[in-house]
Design goal:
five-stranded antiparallel sheet; Beta-Lactamase; 190 residues; 4 helices
Length: 190
């Protein structure tokens, strides 16, 4: 069997099996796909849908979702701005979940799917698929950084100027804790 050029080389049988189990647990799913940060398909079970197109669009939607969470201040300090995205169309849902550090799980579901069940199973499957992807991929934060090779420099006026100093790091203001309420009964409570 020849390798499909549109399927990412990191595809693992475990991912494909997880997609099959997911579709068995949520019968209203009409498709499932795992894509990498480069928009290539890692695993797919999307009958009647071009997986390459869906993977590419999913990557774009993930990047847009990250920008939205950053703009709205809804990300977290670790940089994990994207967790999930749900789109409801006229004929059903497209749900996208983070799967590890870089991959994304996309689920297609009928309009009658219980959304709570979709989220529950999608999050679980995303975590399991993320473990498979992350176990294979090196952590970018731990990757050795090579020193850049400098080209021979030409003497210019720009090089003779001192480098601009970076300003102080911008401090974040601490959030004030919410006022706590006690569960005391008033005279009108029974």
């Amino acid at each position: 069997m020849a390798a499909d050029p549109d399927i990412h080389p990191d595809t693992q049988p475990g991912m494909q099996e997880e997609l099959r189990r997911l579709r068995a647990r949520v019968p209203q799913l009409t498709g499932a796909l795992v894509s990498g940060p480069d928009g290539l398909v890692l695993a797919q079970d999307t009958p009647g849908i071009a997986p390459e197109n869906l993977a590419s669009l999913t990557t774009s939607a993930r990047e847009l979702a990250v920008r939205i969470t950053e703009a709205a201040g809804q990300g977290d300090d670790r940089g994990d701005q994207f967790r999930e995205l749900l789109v409801r169309g006229g004929h059903g849902y497209v749900a996208t979940y983070a799967a590890g550090r870089t991959a994304v799980l996309t689920l297609l579901a009928e309009d009658r799917v219980p959304v709570g069940r979709l989220h529950l199973e999608g999050r679980r499957a995303g975590a399991r698929i993320g473990e498979l992807v992350d176990a294979r991929a090196p952590d970018p934060a731990e990757a050795p950084v090579e020193a850049p090779v400098e080209a021979p420099a030409k003497a210019t006026a720009k090089q003779s100027r001192p480098a601009a100093k970076a300003g102080p790091a911008r401090a974040r203001t601490a959030r004030t804790p919410r006022a706590t309420t006690t569960n005391t009964r008033s005279t009108t409570d029974s």
